[in-house]
Amino acid sequence: MLTRSDLPVVPSLSIDRSTGGEFKPADYAAVREATAALCGSLETEDYVLQSMPDASPAKWHLAHTTWFFEHFLLEPLFKDYRLFRRTYNYLFNSYYYSVGDMHKRAERGLLSRPTVSEIKRYRAHVDRHMTKLIRRKKRDPQFMFLLRLGLNHEQQHQELILTDLKHAFWQNPLKPAVRELLPPVGGHPGGLLWSKGTEGSVTIGHQEDTFCFDNERPAHEVTLRPHELGSRLITNAEYRDFVRDGGYETNALWLSDGWATVQEQGWKRPLYWTEDCEQEFTLGGMRDLDVDAPVCHISYYEADAFATWAGARLPSEAELETAARKFYVDGNFAESTLWQPAPSERDARYTQFYG
């Protein structure tokens, strides 16, 4: 999504991720089962792949999310709870330095042991005890907050499991599929329309008495200057025009750090596109590029360069959050089972704020 105004370029940051509503005990089982289901098509060898230092094996994600519940809920709150393996505090801590040392992130792919089957037993062990703890503590507000934090944390790792598997499978010359995907959905996003955004003093940040992460607080006032917001996300076709127009070869379009990265990394197009910009790698293997779908797997630098090329800029956090608050949280999420961006289905003032 683009913005036009006299403002300097600023990054678009996070939007409100509050789940809100009352917690249902069944939510715990549903989230945990969804994580396991994402790995349902994997072979044992797939679970240990780590394609770069910033990624993690699927096996590690399964164990780390389990360790979170064990360490922060079961250990302090379940009387006489016995750890599954004490060494897991070291192996599956990620960056919680306040609770102890951890195994190096870049070496997670070297862990053939514990085995995948043992990690599955670990998850079952923790789930049994968590189910009992939820029954006992479901009316305790502090417990419920920690539980919801753990579930949101696990949902973040569900996304990481897919992004890390996609990168790992893309490295394979066979370009295998993580699973068979549904056929691309049709869509006609229409032309990019511009609408006047909210101006003046507005409040951003989490304002409700519901779950949120600490970086969503405190709510605070900001001033929005006159601007316009684009009606939809940028499509693959539009971004391909930028590529073919020499966007990756024109340093005037790029922030200095971005241009340095283009030169250092040899960027020429989005990460998973073929050289001719006609196909892309997906979780379902290679596919023809869906020209009407939103472009994805580009960095902030690439998005900023495109916006400059298009005579616009990226929206600020405050501009985007203020506009998004007017719309129900709806979009192409994991439960749609598409596992791939889809075109907007309609012409509207704004579409696809949430995916």
Comma- or semicolon-separated keywords:
355 residues; mainly alpha; 2 domains; three-stranded antiparallel beta sheet; 9 helices; 7 strands; 36% helix; globular
Could you describe the 3D structure shown?
- There is one protein chain.
- The chain is mainly α and 355 residues long.
- It has two domains: 26-171; 194-336, paralog of FGE (formylglycine-generating enzyme) (Alpha-Beta Complex).
- 36% of the residues lie in helices and 7% in strands.
- The protein is built from nine helices and seven strands; from the N terminus they run E-H-H-H-H-H-E-E-E-E-H-H-E-E-H-H.
- The chain has helices at residues 26-38, 58-77, 88-91, 116-137, 141-171, 236-244, 256-265, 300-309, 317-324, and strands at 3-4, 194-196, 200-204, 220-224, 228-230, 279-282, 285-288.
- The chain has a three-stranded antiparallel β-sheet with strand order 1-5-2, with no helix packed on it.
- Strand 6 and strand 7 (285-288) form a beta hairpin.
- Helix 1 packs parallel to helix 5, helix 2 (58-77) runs parallel beside helix 4 (116-137) and helix 2 runs antiparallel to helix 5.
- The longest helix is centred in the middle third of the chain and has 31 residues, at 141-171.
- The radius of gyration is 22 Å and the shape is globular.
- The model is unreliable at 6-21 (pLDDT under 50).
- Number of H- or I-type helical stretches: 9
Q: Helicity level, as a percent range? A: 25-40%
Radius of gyration: 22 Å
Sheet with most strands: strand arrangement: 1-5-2
Q: Structurally, how many domains make up the residues?
A: 2
Give the overall average pLDDT.
91
Q: Low-confidence runs (pLDDT<50, min 5 residues)? A: 6-21
What order do the helices and strands follow? Answer: EHHHHHEEEEHHEEHH
The number of E-state strands comes to 7
Task: Indicate the overall shape.
Answer: globular
